[in-house]
Design brief:
single chain, 427 residues, mainly beta, 3 helices
Length: 427
């Protein structure tokens, strides 16, 4: 009996060794990857590219050879991101609006699994463009095709529908008990009660002047309640107080730093820095509260952290531990920045904003020299992004052609006038 047991154990050990190979017992650590930083060396780094997610297999652990030997080999189901747009992170999970797959794809990084939200039932999504998540975990998703804001609870279950007649919501943000929705149809920002969905007021109206919009596409609210809106047609960012009074504005159609060509979405961090994605520049510009460009990150190419038609962006405080293995030891990360790309392998590109770690110098990260083409203007030292040609198959079907004429819906509604709201919209 003992001989049989020893024989079985011996055969099992041989099988394990044959799987692991001769280096199984003395496996060397993988060499550290060269990091990519912005601005370019030798300037002090402020943004580091960490990693990307393009499919479920990027976050889910693959089955080991030993598992396959014991349990048998199975076909792994891989869920790819098709065309991501709006994005948010909450409680260790990344929520990505996938326009082409008509769903919210959830990457649960702590539990290493992938989930789907809004695929079936009455709350099935058709064209999810943006998502906002309240501190209590309630999610609000704009659906352009349905003309609705879909509500999901903290457990990602359907919780209601907000409807406003003729609304075409494209972006959403939250502050306290209010929901701020960019409405393409009325060319303004609707302010709704985030509990009931009832209409409260509007910010801005259709037009080309100050405090007016042609196509408000991206929105965020800072910690003090100021509302920031980017207009893809005007190539301008406007800042309002909660009552709708214009505080400041900046931006113009320009290929130089500080200008925009095809701005998509925006985010504001807790220090008041403003991040704007631009699909023509293929990057993200960072501004201060006065509209002065501070730096940018990303660019077209095959280098780490390159972008290909960036769209959505969010700034996330916390969960840095999930990416600690990617953070350069000479870099002190302060917050995460997530950017969606509609083409390429970096569908969700994850960066860290920060600075040199205490006691470290630029020489400690000089390995990144030459990796990222920063395109600096040698006369000013200010990043000067260069617009790139959009691919022929990227027809902007989510936007109308460039026009300064108010839409019929905006004209009928009078821009900022109160629309009719279904009082029983939340089901």
């Amino acid at each position: 009996m003992r001989k049989d047991l020893r024989l079985i154990l011996g055969l099992s050990l041989l099988a394990i060794l044959s799987i692991c190979g001769p280096g199984c017992a003395n496996k060397q650590p993988a060499p550290q990857k060269v990091a990519a930083f912005w601005p370019q060396y030798p300037d002090p780094p402020r943004v580091q590219y960490l990693m990307s997610i393009a499919r479920s297999s990027d976050v889910e652990p693959s089955k080991s050879k030993l598992d396959e030997l014991v349990l048998g080999k199975e076909t792994e189901q891989v869920l790819p991101l098709a065309k991501p747009y709006g994005i948010k992170m909450w409680n260790g999970k990344i929520y990505a609006c996938d326009i082409r797959n008509q769903q919210i794809t959830i990457f649960d990084l702590r539990n290493k699994r992938t989930l789907i939200m809004g695929k079936d039932g009455a709350n099935a999504l058709e064209r999810p463009t943006d998502i906002a998540i309240s501190p209590d975990g309630v999610k609000y998703v704009t659906d352009m095709n349905k003309g609705q804001v879909m509500v999901f609870d903290s457990q990602d279950r359907p919780a209601g529908i907000f409807t406003v007649p003729q609304m075409k919501p494209v972006a959403v943000a939250i502050f306290q008990n209010e929901l701020f929705v960019c409405d393409f149809a009325r060319q303004c920002v609707l302010v709704l009660d985030r509990t009931t969905g009832s209409y409260r007021r509007a910010i801005g109206k259709a037009g080309t002047g100050d405090g007016e919009f042609i196509r408000p596409l991206g929105i965020d609210v800072d910690s003090q309640g100021f509302v920031y809106v980017i207009d893809v047609m005007k190539c301008q960012l406007q800042k309002f107080d909660r009552a709708g009074k214009l505080v400041t504005k900046f931006g113009t159609t320009s290929a130089n730093a500080g200008g925009f060509v095809r701005p998509k979405q925006i985010a504001v961090d807790r220090e008041g820095q403003i991040y704007v994605t631009d699909a023509a520049f293929q990057n993200v510009q960072i501004f201060d509260q006065f509209g002065r460009p501070l730096t940018f990150f990303g660019s077209t190419g095959g280098h780490p952290g390159a972008m290909y038609l960036p769209a959505g962006i969010c700034v996330h405080e916390g969960d840095l531990d999930l990416f600690q293995q990617y953070i350069h030891p000479a870099f002190q990360a302060q917050r995460l920045i997530l950017v969606t790309n509609q083409f390429g392998d970096n569908k969700i590109a994850i960066y860290a904003f920060g600075q040199l770690a205490p006691g470290k110098t630029i020489a400690d990260i000089s390995a990144s020299k030459g990796i990222v083409p920063a395109g600096l203007d040698n006369t000013t030292g200010i990043p000067k992004p260069t617009p790139t040609t959009l691919p022929a198959d990227n027809a902007p079907d989510e936007f109308p052609v460039r026009s300064t004429t108010p839409t019929a819906a905006a004209t009928n509604a009078g821009g900022a006038s109160a629309p009719a709201v279904n009082p029983a919209a939340r089901k």
